[in-house]
Amino acid sequence: SGIIIVQELATPEGCPIPLYFVLGKHYPSNIDETDGAKYIGHNIHFAGRSGIIIVQGIKIGCLSGSFPPAMKAEMCAEANVLLQQPSSLDVLITAQWPQDVQKGAQPPSKQLPGQAFSRVVSDIIHAAQPRYHFCGTAGLHYERAPFLNPDGSSCRVIALGRFGNAEKQKAMYAFNANPGDRSAPAQGIVATPSPFAPTVKPPSQRDSQPPPAAGFSRWNISSNRQAGGRGSNQHDQRGRHGHGHKDQFQGPNKRPRLDPDAPCWFCIGGSNFEDHLVIDIGDESYVAMAKGPINEYNALIIPVEHLPSCKLANDATWAEMVRYMDLLRAMFAKDGFVAVFQERATFTRGARHACIQVFAVKKEDSCSMENTFNNLGRMRGLKFERVTDSQDWRAHVPEDEYFIACLPDNSMLIHTVPPKGRFPTTFGREAMAGVMKAPEKADWKNCKQTHKEEEAITEQFKTKFKAVQS
Questions:
Q1: How far apart are CA 112 and CA 159, in angstroms?
Q2: pLDDT at 294
Q3: pLDDT tens digits, residue range 232-272?
Q4: In a 3-state reduction of DSSP, which class is residue 178?
Q5: Residue 192 has what DSSP assignment?
Q6: In this structure, how many other beta carbons lie within 10 angstroms of the beta carbon of residue 211?
Q7: Are 126 and 150 in contact (CB under 8 A)?
Q8: In 69-176, alpha helices (H)
Q9: How far apart are CA 349 and CA 262, in angstroms?
Q10: Distance of alpha carbon 53 from alpha carbon 34, whole angstroms
Q11: 328-364 pLDDT, tens per residue?
């Protein structure tokens, strides 16, 4: 029945509220068993085989699939994503029930088959210490008495019936969740000991170790870096919206952000995220249309993890973003255009999420591009360093604030923002509007579109992009 609901909702109208789901043994025709996290339709998201999503600051672990009852989590590749989390979960969602869930508590109202239970799920609960765990394979409503996690907080396991079931088993559950709350059970609530044997250490008891190299969902937006490696941040702190790097820059030019907890436009699942603009989602990054596009090719390449600059992107994220750049170059070339990529990593009001602006320029207009940047820069008192020896601009940009433009010949123009300096927020777009001989488009607000127009231009872009992906 869950598959039918997903297929019915996968329409242009989509779902009126955000819907994230996992699957069990059976997959609908529009989702392959090997798929990672996947955008299905407006407000509808498949959470993938396993991974983490953050919705309104609530950290949710997701696990799809059906596993043999006796299989341990440490032997399960999908479980590694959830086992290696540096901090506890708020919510866990799985298809199967945890093995031994009824131990020390009232059993379910009817006997369930052995395959409904999973040792993998039990191990994950013990290690990730969620406050709530929801499961649903058996189609039976069951609420276990809360039990104690290793850190002293409590967990509630709640199984739900199938939507619209004839037995009127409870199929929906509303609850309050405070993101990151690890407090002990409220006074008057009696929590039992945990029914799960300690096979995997929880985060607080775990030795510092790098996460596994593979198996991470594209929505796992937590920090997955080895300490001291490229993109590591010794001062990383998770804000209530799942944002790392609460101090945006760590060098001498560091400035406090005016509103570090502001909702982010680019964090998948955030309250401001506009999924109708998404073109393609990869494992580490995604492509979306720009708001108020300067033309029908104006797009963004955005890391899934909330980073203040591409300088901090790890190697896997950067490699995927470069692959997207190559695909976009190929797509533009088919229509007689060349690609320009820009990043403005500067102090900004509110949450700063790195993104690469993508512009397509007619080939015949591109010869004057470098002069346009330099001339506009002189007018604004800005100087650019020209670099030609590398496509990896992480090796050339500073730790602090900067602007970079990668031109069609793969040369790069880099401006380092000095201490107490400022960089004009519209500079990059102004330069491109000048190159395109359309100065009125320098302000994106002059190019604003209706929601329907945004959907149409995104679908048009998707069609062309898919042609170069195959």
A1: 12
A2: 95
A3: 332 333 332 334 443 333 343 444 333 444 568 888 767 78
A4: coil
A5: B
A6: 19
A7: yes
A8: 77-83, 119-128
A9: 9
A10: 18
A11: 999 999 999 999 999 999 865 556 789 999 999 998 8
Contact 382, 427 (CB under 8 A): yes
AA letter at 306: H
- Nearest alpha-carbon partner for 120 in 78, 59, 60: 78
- Taking alpha carbons only, the member of 381, 327, 344, 337 closest to residue 360 is 337
- The token duo for 60 is 């949710």
Kindly state the helix (H) or strand (E) to which residue 362 belongs, with its residue range: strand 356-362
Cα–Cα distances (Å) from 344 to 5, 179, 279, 465, in that order, read 42, 31, 22, 25
| pLDDT reported for residue 3 | 43
CA distances from 445 to 288, 407, 448 (A): 18, 25, 5
Of residues 311 and 244, the one with the higher pLDDT is: 311
- Measured between alpha carbons, how far is 54 from 219 in angstroms, rounded to an integer? 8
Answer whether 203's CB lies under 8 Å from 223's CB.
no
Which of 252, 241, 341, 77 lies closest to 64 in space, CA to CA? 77
Q: What is the pLDDT of residue 148?
A: 92
For residue 216, what are its two tokens?
């991470």
In sign, the C-alpha dihedral spanning 342, 284, 290, 236 is negative
Cα separation, 457 vs 297, in Å, equals: 9
Query: What tokens does 307 get?
Result: 């980073």
